[in-house]
Here is the input.
Amino acid sequence: MTEVRVPTLGESVTEATVATWFKKPGDAVAVDEMLCELETDKVTVEVPSPAAGTLSEIVAPEGETVGVDALLAQISAGDAKPAGDTDAPKADAAPKADAGDAPQAVDVMVPTLGESVTEATVSTWFKKVGDTVAQDEMLCELETDKVSVEVPSPAAGVLSEIIATEGTTVDATAKLAVIGGASGAASSAPAAKDEASPAPAASGKDVEDAPSAKKLMAEKGMSADQVTGSGRDGRIMKEDVMKAIASAPAATAAAPSAPRAPVSADDASREERVKMTRLRQTIAKRLKDSQNTAAMLTTYNEVDMTEVMALRNEYKDLFLKKHGVKLGFMSFFTKACIHALREVPEVNAEIDGTDIVYKNFVHMGIAAGTPTGLVVPVIRDADAMSFAGIEKAIAEKGARARDGKLSMAEMQGGTFTISNGGVYGSLMSSPILNPPQSGILGMHKIQDRPMAINGQVVIRPMMYLALSYDHRIVDGKGAVTFLVRVKEALEDPRRLLMDL
Here is the structure.
């Protein structure tokens, strides 16, 4: 008898609710076949079978709250079947594939998507059914919240079936296609395991929404059609209901303008409707969540760029010759912000529940526009880097961002962000916070303007600076002090060298 127990749920998570059982007592299960789904206040966790056999008993039914390592079910030996088998003839046919003189079918699975990424959307198929493919030839492209992932062919052969068509959302263990007549021996065990993964989807229509979600909808008088489910097969989870509740007032307020204006037949023929990419959907959601969560406020100042520009012009050739990278303005602003963050540490902190977490380091996020949307690669420990180190890191991250090659890890963990709208000609803006950060500096266009200097009107290259901050943690005094310190450091760059 094999016990099925609650897996590790994550740091500080001690309990979960049994949301859905995919199997019932008496069902035969394969190794790693999904048995049930647990729901915590943060994530949804699938529980695979630790052994092949028969599900003899379910100890924790749907809706029950269980702790870490609690007993969920028991699996008895016998009556086991391979994960991909659904009937006896298929099992009998398996040995024939091992004979070595017949072509094998190889499954094309979703590759590793990165830490914390659980699903992707099939954006483009480069091949169609019937096409001959070579090993490692690109078959399709997947799009996640942050990056695009190309899927190579695991073997040479013919693309015999496309299971996940363009626009389909797939999880991290899904099968995308099948390569028929593949050359080379394929491992039967992984194939069996992979074929087992779609099992929950086969019964998806019979799986109800999470019990905790149904209970909360009943309490709030909501119906399922008012909530968009994010769970497997579109089932509604508790957090989906909570999001719907949170957005209800905003939706109500916007109701008068929400309906699309009537469009004539002539105008409709000239319109183009394009589905938002997952990256654009994520950007939209995060920006709106930031506005809804933080008490966001923006304060402004302006900086005379004369000294920075003079210093840059004087040393840019020598800098490039020695370090192999151009001396730009971003390293000056990064250094100036690091200098200011030391004096106003709350701008480099974040709120966690009722705690304030101060960061004794600076992981600087540098916002970068790409053809697919805005991303924020993070330069880790920027406070320990030189001007040359910062410029090299910015150039390298920027190039990877434009090529769509940034990993999830490279865009996580930032403590403060700089956004340069000036490269697009922006003269003034209010940047939106990048949660859970408490501050973001907006740079703008350098413009010659008449300024009063020592009683005389002179033309100076001026730039407006904007600091958006979370007023829950940063007071107005701290925000203004931060901008003044940045201004002072840029107008007299020698202060950065002497830490003044």
About this structure: The chain has four domains: 2-82, 101-184, 212-245, 280-498.
